[in-house]
Amino acid sequence: MVARYAVLLEIIESGEGVPAAAILGEVRQMEDRLGLNPKAMRSLLWEVAADEVAEKREDNAAPSRTADKRTKLKIVG
After folding, report:
1. 8 Å CB contact between 26 and 52
2. Which DSSP symbol is given to 31?
3. What is the dihedral angle through the alpha carbons of 38, 40, 46, 49, rounded to the nearest 10 degrees?
4. Closest CA to 1 of 23, 25, 32, 34
5. Contact at 8 Å (CB) between 29 and 23?
6. Would you give the distance in Å from CA 25 to the centre of its chain?
7. Which residue from 21, 52, 65, 55 is spatially nearest to 8, judged by alpha carbons?
8. With contact defined as beta carbons under 8 Å apart, do 32 and 43 qualify?
9. Residue 77 has pLDDT above 80, yes or no
10. Which residues are CB-neighbours of 30 under 8 A, at least 6 positions away?
11. Which residues 6+ apart lie within 8 Å of 5 measured at CB?
12. Separation CA 56–CA 58 (nearest Å)
């Protein structure tokens, strides 16, 4: 269904001779089924969850060489 949505959306955006109005209704229905807009997400009772591991991921990330060099620099004025 996602692939079909992508193909129909590409046809509409590229204007390949098919009237956009002819398939626009189908695309909107697919967006609702796939939860691709806020209204559809609410009707499907979907919520975007907070990234619970982002802080831990950032803590475990190895500092880059550039970041290490910058911490050693001093401002002279």
Report:
1. no
2. H
3. -30
4. 34
5. no
6. 23
7. 21
8. yes
9. no
10. 1, 4, 5, 8, 36
11. 27, 30, 31, 34, 36
12. 5
Determine the pLDDT at residue 2. Answer: 92
Return the higher-pLDDT residue of 45 and 76: 45
The length of the chain in residues reads: 77
With tokens 């956009």, the residue in question is: 20
2-14 vs 20-34: helix crossing angle, rounded to 10: 150
Q: Which residues contact 24 (CB under 8 A, 6 or more apart)?
A: 12
pTM surpassing 0.85?
A: no
Q: Is residue 7 classed exposed, middle or buried when 0-12, 13-18 and 19+ CB atoms within 10 A define those classes?
A: exposed
| Amino acid found at 68 | D
- Give the pLDDT score at 23: 84
CB 34 within 8 A of CB 1: yes
